[in-house]
Amino acid sequence: MKNFFFDNKINFLFLFISFIFLVAVIGIDNINFQNTGWLYKGNDSSTIQLGWYFFLNDDWRFPLGSNPNYGEELGSSIVFSDSIPILALFFKLFKSFIPGNFQYFSFWFFICFYLQLFFSFKILKKFTNSTPYSLIGSIFFLISPILIFRVNWHHAEAGHWLLLCTLYLFFFNKVDKSKSQWFLLMILSLLISYNFTVVILIAYSFLRIFIFFYTKENFFKPAKDFFILALLLLLTLYIVGYFQIRPGDALARGFGVNKLNLLSMFDPVHTPFNTHWSLFLPDIKLSRMEELEGFNYFGLGIIMMLLFALFLFLNKRYKANLFAIKSNKEIKVFIIVSLFLTFWALSNKISFGSYTLVEIPLNKYIYAVLSIAKSTGRHFWIVNYFLLILSIIIVYKCFKEKNSILILTLFLLIQLTDTSAGLKTRINLFNPTINDPYHTSVKNSLWDELFEKYKIVRTTLPINYLGVVSKIAYKMEKHNIEKTNLVMFGRGNRKAAAEARYYLYDNFNKKRLPSGVIYLIHNSGHLNQLRHLFEDENVGFFYRDNIWVMVKNEKERMNDNDKKMFSKIKSKLLETNKKENLSLFPEQGQGYFNDVYYGFGWSHDYKKQGVWSEGPISTLLFSIDKNYEDLKLEIICRPYLTKKNKFLEFDIYVNNLLNQSVQLINNNQDEKIEILFKAKIAKENEIRIDFSFKNPISPYEVLETPDSRKLGILIKSITIIPKTI
């Protein structure tokens, strides 16, 4: 036993350091597997825990990662809630023995910290054969800003040790003798986060191609290996549940935006989270997503060490010392890999600070393929670590061990001092992790009453990534909610979500409201239309914690304030002769005080002016001045038409009366629709305009984009004009 501890003293030291670091980062109380409150902080960690909660409490299904109760018709898998599938699958095996409020993310962080130390030490030790030097060097990797930045935010993305393991295999294991290790690493990465898989696959592919040309091996040997690898990866993707969505749903916006900037390595400020990672270096103004997904700050200590190492590398005096590095074939190949990943991380839009140097237009099909891994700024992480490793081993090779240790320690102290500004925001001692989930959760007692009675929670806008999820996530776990379509996924089934919306609105319009379901009403437009439909029915409308809720057979539970607030709901006045420009942006969340004219069946024109009709029925709601008799509603719009659908047909109803039938053709310009009606048909001065589309079509159906919304017309403005006074 004594020899066992002695032979493994480094590993035990790393275990101890990792535990202390875990306590420092998340707090001693949060290590407890039954403490989930710290995960419900209002950011992505809420949905990560919630996805695991629904997965744990569901039956085993196939694919194994299927998680239909979290998302319902939206197409759910444990991989899309970023809940670290390998741990979710493992701990679900013991569901009969673990409590309902179980979390494994503190354990995951412990694993990440330990393996970060372990693999960085192994790499440095292999290059230097110095234990004390490698120990000091491994600390750089543990406190790396790009690692700590991801902890408590994107939990799966804290697995940077996968990248270090990749570097270890790349430099020290002969590829023909370590195929199984490479394959296992890629399969493992798929069970954590596919972002790592992309980088590992690129590194392996470059290495195999280099070996093929360098050794002139038989072509069929690497071809066979790549074929086997492809089969294994596809099988893993299928078993874990990646194919719960359609291939087109893997495409997402972000390529060319969620990217690296040429100055990202030197920018210490993360503006979206208001975090400054340097005591000394100033903020460099980058775009929001370059600071978010492109965050790659080295730290002043590493920047100085890189410059020092570059000086040594170029100095002829140390040519002999560095011969082994300069002649290392694996290092040369990885320099090529690094260049490839760096250019990919920069994307087709290369920026230097706030200036765009180069922007290369891309064919939409090339863009589609690249958008599968949209957050390209993450591809630079392994390059970041590679440069750090190079600088550490160059310093070692140029000096005696004692002097090397002193120099490396000096750079480490500079690094710690500089990045302490950011580390303090992540160290629990200085910035305690709030254990009470109620600081972000809804608080009113009605939630507890409803969630105890009803076990299905839905939204009136079934889409992916609703911000309100974080407000009710803790309550859903606490009260054992069984199903919900309030989700935040990395990817979702767009077609299923669209069809769910159309089915829901059709049921609402036909006054078919299921019992036993709690509906969170998304915005004031939905609320207004639901008022028209159900105000005379036994349906309860409740306003709690700035959220409107609707439940069938619960009208008697409404208190005086609910009734008062509900009575104030009216359609927004459309003033005569005043042009109203319409807009609806995807980031607009749940809001009831921004008056809008649209009810069900409308969607955004991504960050542009106008609102798209979506689905078979779209409804406008507004109130009018009764001083007029005859009115004309003038609508400026553009139909969604392509070569595959050359005309658009729809009927227009005014307060349930057919007003006119319309056919629009593709003439590449805005159309003006005039709707004439008499003011006397208004009920309490309110007008409802229904557009009933006969042939809406989605961009996905005509192979334009992955967008599965069935679009009709893009309304840019509306104007009400009196005809007779």
Structure description:
The chain has 3 domains: 2-31 and 105-426, no CATH class; 441-567, no CATH class; 580-722, Galactose-binding domain-like (Jelly Rolls, Sandwich). The chain contains 23 helices and 19 strands. The strands form 5 sheets. Strands 10, 11, 12, 14, 17 and 19 form a 6-stranded antiparallel β-sheet that branches. Strands 6-5-7-9-8 form a 5-stranded mixed β-sheet. A hairpin with a 2-residue loop joins strand 8 (539-544) and strand 9. Mean pLDDT is 91; it is low at 586-590.
Biggest sheet descriptor: 6 strands, antiparallel
User: What percentage of amino acids are in beta strands?
Assistant: 5-15%
Calculate the mean pLDDT score and round it: 91
- The number of domains is 3
Helix percent band:
40-55%
Structure classification: alpha+beta
Low-confidence stretches: 586-590
Number of DSSP E strands: 19
Shape: elongated
How many angstroms does the end-to-end distance come to? 100 Å
Q: How many helices in DSSP terms?
A: 23
Question: Which features would summarize this protein structure in a list?
Answer:
five-stranded mixed beta sheet, 725 residues, 3 domains, six-stranded antiparallel beta sheet, alpha+beta, 23 helices, Jelly Rolls
